[in-house]
Amino acid sequence: MIENVGKPERIMDIYRSYEPEHAAQAERQLARLYGLQKDTKVNGAVYQTAISIFSAGYIFMQLPSTLLMTKLRPSIFLKIIAQGRLAADAGSDDVLGEESISIWTGIAWAAKDYRVWLFAGLQMATTASISYSHFFPTLIQQIGIKNRTTVLLLTSPPYLVAFCWALGLAWMADKHQTRSIPASISCIVSMIGTVLLVALPHLYWARYAFTFLVCIGTFGIYSTTYTWLSSTIPRPPIKRAAAIGIANTLANLASLFANYFWLDEYGPTFQVSWGILLAFQAFAMGCILTLRFMLQRKNRKFERLAREINLNHESAVQALEEDAQRALKNNFRYVT
């Protein structure tokens, strides 16, 4: 009962925290559609630089803000309850002593873990792949639709379908306790859509249909990978927070350079732009498959240790790395 107190309110707080950022993105799309670029007589890379400036401010606070949440209130007792629950879920039995670990130590631990950088690269590539959404109204205008209201209405269906896809995929991933398979499926779907957009530059309504594939694919990756990161690096909390902060920082860094994928000179088909997105999607796929391979190899190692080492031999258990000890004592395994 305690763990559910205020849960809807906390979830809504999270949603509200994202509203200003995404509202600003929508306003930039509308401003371009209604002639901002033409009125200001700013074109090409200069316009993209101006857009990128909006993203620069909050990128610098991604890592510090995530880390500070592990050190500051809302409340001491709620923090202890939450830590106990996370410890039970992650197969840990000693987390309260981790409060003394410094922020810089957590950052150093996260920076030394190759898995953190694989997740960060995955998030960066996914964010770069969704950069087309900043210019979606402009892309729809290339179909030949001039009515601005109609253009705005046509931007909605891909996101509605993507929402349903991401929700269903997240449910399936949780039910079957897998992350790499749904993420890989989504990545393949987005790559298929991007290839078709590059290959068929003049079938305008078909290109609009292909954007559905790109949209559901990229948001499908988002729906599984953040929980995958948290379950892969469950403790200590300061390291997990640093890992999430690093992943968020690199992901938002993509919003700085990805705007340059959509320069005016690449229009009206933007084949070069879609080709760049395809490269990032391939990189994301590589990160997913590498993580799956590495974590499966770790799980096989845990299975072997469980057969070979007797838990009563304390010295042999203590000689193992922390993850291996949790695997032996609490049957911990990585979600792949």
Would you kindly provide a brief summary of this structure?
This protein has 336 residues and is mostly helical. It is 75% helix and 0% strand. It has a single domain, classed as Growth Hormone, Chain: A (Up-down Bundle).
Walk me through the structure.
- The chain crosses the membrane at residues 116-136, 156-173, 185-204, 210-229, 241-262, 274-295.
- Keywords: Membrane, Transmembrane, Transmembrane helix, Transport.
- With 336 residues, the protein is mainly α.
- The chain has a single domain (2-302), classed as Growth Hormone, Chain: A, CATH 1.20.1250.
- 75% of the residues lie in helices and 0% in strands.
- The chain is built from 15 helices and no strands.
- The protein has helices at residues 7-33, 36-40, 44-59, 62-68, 76-90, 103-112, 114-129, 136-141, 148-176, 180-199, 204-232, 237-257, 271-308, 314-318, 322-330.
- It is elongated.
- It starts with 6 loop residues before the first helix and ends in a 6-residue tail after the last helix.
- Mean pLDDT is 78; it is low at 1-15.
Question: What descriptors fit this protein?
Answer:
336 residues, disordered N terminus, Growth Hormone, Chain: A, mainly alpha, 0% strand, 15 helices
| Extended strand count | 0
Strand content: under 5%
Give the low-pLDDT segments: 1-15
Under the CATH scheme, the architecture is Up-down Bundle
| CATH H-level superfamily | MFS general substrate transporter like domains
Give the integer mean of the pLDDT values.
78
Distance between the termini: 30 Å
Rg for CA atoms: 22 Å
Please outline the major beta sheet.
none
Give the domain tally. Answer: 1
What is the CATH topology assignment? Growth Hormone, Chain: A
Structural class: mainly alpha
What is the approximate shape? elongated
CATH class: Mainly Alpha
Q: H/E series, N to C?
A: HHHHHHHHHHHHHHH
Give the helix tally.
Answer: 15
Question: Which range best describes the helical content: under 10%, 10-25%, 25-40%, 40-55%, 55-70% or over 70%?
Answer: over 70%
Transmembrane segments: 116-136, 156-173, 185-204, 210-229, 241-262, 274-295
Keywords: Membrane, Transmembrane, Transmembrane helix, Transport
Membrane topology: Multi-pass membrane protein
GO cellular component, one term: membrane
